[in-house]
Amino acid sequence: MHRRDFIRLAAGTAVVVAAPTVLRAQTKPVIKVGLGPQQPTQADTRRVWEPVYKAVTDKIGATLELQVANDWAGIATALANEQIDVAQMGPWGYVLAKINGGARIINTMLVNGKPTYKAIIVARPGLTVAKFPEDAKGLSMQMLDVGSTSGWLVPTHFLKSKGIDPKTFFSKYAEGASAAAAQMATINGQVDLATGWDTHRNIMIKNGTIKADSNTVVWESAPLPNEVVAVRKGLPESVAKELQAAFAAITADEIAKQMPYPYTGYVVGTDEPYKMLEQMGYDLGALKKSS
Q: Which of 98, 131, 193, 214 has the smallest set of CB atoms within 10 Å of its CB?
């Protein structure tokens, strides 16, 4: 651990150099971590992930300060503006934070041992959509917030690639729902279709929140690069490396004890798999190339 690097992370730590041992123990560097709204509620997200991040920050001798964002766009903005040091976030949020604020990836998350997942579109019970999007014209659609990879970027790019403007193709179109709310809206018959991602839906089924036949998956994307752990632009590289190594070194026993279903660990991440999402952002005009 490079203590001088950590001293720069948080106000109030500069007294470490000449302080006695007890005071040094009281002034451990602080790592500010932000989490996207991955679980059904913010409280759920904190409950399942805080032990993991506490273990990682303990390993590198830091104190954890954890926040959970309301939406995926919010966590990207917080990292781009360097309001937090580390974010566990969706792939599109990472791309936004990289382009807008120089954030950089340190780890990719594994789900059932794989670094990929899929975007999905689900339909309310009893609704038949044999072929998507052809059979979906005139139905109602609920998408997630515009910072969501699977809930906005990927399905919107897919529809646009078919020459379809989702805001006019569907009889009612809305953005901004949480993933859990969108799933429940189809189950309750409030909307015909909703976006989401397979990992999240499987968690809701596993937790008993919904059943596998509560709604129907009518479309799924090609495999997408998984969620990431990313750090802010100004975080010293030595600290980023410490964190990267600590995540990648989580053992099978620790995974079994600490990580929620279906997550199975972290690998060292690179930017390359996420360039496909960056291109989608440019295709949709959500990102602008600098002149």
A: 131
